[in-house]
Write a structure and sequence with these properties.
Helix content: 25-40%
Cofactor: FAD
Number of helices: 12
InterPro entries: FAD-bd, FAD/NAD-bd_sf, RIFMO-like
Keywords: FAD, Flavoprotein, Monooxygenase, Oxidoreductase
Radius of gyration: 23 Å
Bound molecules: flavin-adenine dinucleotide
Distance between the termini: 23 Å
Number of domains: 3
Number of strands: 26
Structural class: alpha+beta
Protein name: Monooxygenase
Shape: globular
CATH architecture of the largest domain: 3-Layer(bba) Sandwich
CATH topology of the largest domain: FAD/NAD(P)-binding domain
Oligomer: single chain
GO molecular function, one term: FAD binding
CATH class of the largest domain: Alpha Beta
Strand content: 25-35%
Largest sheet: 8 strands, mixed
Length: about 500
């Protein structure tokens, strides 16, 4: 950025959950951020109604859970499903299904408040228009925006992140391909009033399609209707409540046409993923990077986790603590996660939304989910608790090597006991710094991290005995990145300095 006058360090396009989470993360890491959002005010509509277990942990790692208004414990349910085959997710260690009944609008409001308090400059009514060439090899990125007054002006920053949703203009402007499969099936969503329904929280397959119904607020029900074989509708066409009521009647036999709707919308099973999450100084996150069938409430959750992965890395590069190659780990880590998201939602679509030809598959799934290993595997996928980043630093894709089993996985939530009483792994991450857990009161371990007090907090603690002797897989020291993933774990300082250098830069 030398020699250029930047308006800010990072421009984030889009104040959806992904952009707002990223803005907070960037501020926590000390970077300046401008968020531009074309809508003058939030819509008040909520596509999502909750988030996955890993997204919930991510919010916990920033101290955000109490802001959802329900204390430290959100409404969760142990019951979940994969493609409609329902089972109890408590087979997972530390299991909890994600948070339920939290409208996406509430999540966005929590994140907007948080990012704003941290100093993010959120500009509503500002629209991203275009990107000036040179973002691939220049020392800054310049964009054209339309201001609320309708004027066009330029903004310049070190980096640009497109969090502008599935039809991302940033993605197109950066020339990033979005390969995948077109929509083959259309589905409806409506928030209806004036009717009383039977809850079908996880969705129910009936003759003719899948329906879901859940109470949203006093007198308002969210319904989703997925009629078998309905072709994908034209995205420009406005869906009417009568059309949704007709589809509901065809499948359930229930007449809701006397009611009304505060919101009617539609969606499809189009499935696509950006070929690259980074091109030069431009990055993509959230729906801008991946779209898919909303199965299991995974979209917002994945966007929030993309942001948690990218934010601290960008901030470290901006502060000068890390070099640019750290930013390549964003695509390396998150693209495979996105690909797995697309795989699992497509698989769920075939099982749950297929017509009678999928009946044998549904029968087979119902049999398979009787087995604990199968439950554990499927719950791990849709809760996002099974994510393991390949942190070996080579391109072999072999992450098994000699690394400790915790490396690349999210730090398991644990209660920790130290000189100042009890804490938790999540609480230690509230600062957005890395954390070195010194679990055996080892001066050698503490010395190793001493040169980075501004980036890595050292906590001399031990796991609560009630969590079991192997609560941390035998490790006596664990290095946790700001996004809650284990960068290194061991029983001696061997390899620790290398990991500290790689993720947090040189000591001062
Ligand atoms: C029926 C349905 C149910 C769902 N349920 C869940 C659920 O329970 N849990 C879950 O995790 N996910 C769920 N999802 C998915 C979730 O809604 C999305 O994944 C999530 O909204 C993605 O967030 P985002 O911030 O990446 O993008 P978006 O929410 O799309 O936000 C993008 C923002 O960018 C702005 N923008 C766009 N273009 C520009 C521009 N040129 N300039 C400036 N601003 C711009 C937009 O106005 C918007 O505010 C569901 C989706 C559907 C369809």
């Amino acid at each position: 950025m030398e020699g250029t006058t930047a308006d800010t360090d990072v421009i984030v396009v889009g104040a959806g959950p992904t952009g707002l989470m990223l803005a907070g993360e960037l501020r926590l890491g000390g970077a300046r951020v401008v968020v531009i959002e074309k809508l003058a005010a939030p819509t008040g509509q909520s596509r999502g109604l909750g988030f996955t277990a890993r997204a919930m942990e991510t919010f916990d790692e920033r101290g955000l859970l109490p802001r959802f208004g329900q204390g430290d414990t959100l409404a969760t349910s142990p019951m979940g499903h994969f493609g409609g085959a329902q089972f109890d997710f408590t087979v997972l260690e530390d299991a909890h299904f994600g948070a339920r009944g939290i409208p996406q609008g509430d999540t966005e409001a929590v994140l907007e408040d948080w990012a704003g308090e941290l100093g993010a400059d959120i500009r509503r009514g500002w629209e991203f228009v275009s990107l000036t060439d040179g973002f691939q090899d220049g020392d800054s990125v310049e964009i054209t925006v339309r201001t609320p007054q309708g004027e066009q002006r330029t903004l310049r920053a070190a980096h640009l992140v497109g969090c502008d949703g599935g039809s991302s203009r940033v993605r197109r402007a950066a020339g990033i391909d979005f390969p995948g499969t077109d929509a083959t099936q259309g589905m409806y969503l409506a928030d209806i009033t004036g009717v009383q329904l039977t809850p079908r929280f996880l969705g129910e397959r009936l003759n003719g399609g899948m329906v879901m119904a859940a109470p949203l607020s006093e007198g308002v029900w969210r319904i989703i209707v997925c009629p078998d074989g309905r072709p994908a509708h034209d995205r420009e066409r406005t869906v009417t409540f009568q059309e949704v009521a007709g589809a509901w009647h065809d499948i359930t036999g229930e007449d809701i046409s006397h009611g009304g709707a505060s919101w009617v919308s539609s969606f499809t099973n189009a499935t696509r993923q950006a070929a690259h999450y980074r091109r030069g100084r431009v990055f993509l996150a959230g729906d801008a990077a991946h779209i898919h069938l909303p199965a299991g409430g995974q979209g917002l959750s994945t966007g929030v986790q993309d942001a948690a992965n990218l934010g601290w890395k960008l901030a470290a590069v901006i502060r000068g603590d890390a070099d640019d190659t750290l930013l390549d780990t964003y695509h390396a880590e998150r693209h495979p996660v996105g690909a797995r998201l697309l795989m699992n939602t497509r698989a769920q679509g075939i099982v749950f939304l297929g017509g009678p030809e999928s009946d044998p598959l549904r029968e087979l799934m119902a049999e398979l989910v009787q087995y604990d290993d199968v439950k554990r595997h499927l719950a791990g996928i849709v809760s996002h608790l099974d994510i393991r980043y390949d942190l070996t630093g080579d391109d072999t894709g072999d992450d098994t090597g000699t690394a400790h089993p915790l490396v690349g996985r999210r730090m398991p939530p644990r209660t920790l006991v130290g000189a100042h009483g009890e804490t938790t792994t999540a609480r230690l991450l509230h600062t957005g710094h890395g954390v070195l857990l010194d679990l055996a009161d080892d001066a050698g371990i503490r010395r190793a991290a001493a040169g980075r007090p501004d980036r890595v907090d050292v906590a001399t603690v031990h796991a609560k005995p009630t969590d079991g002797p192997d609560a941390l897989a035998g490790a006596t020291a664990v290095l946790v990145r700001p996004d809650g993933y284990v960068a290194w774990a061991g029983t001696s300082p061997q390899g620790l300095e290398e990991a500290l250098q790689r993720w947090f830069g040189p000591a001062r």
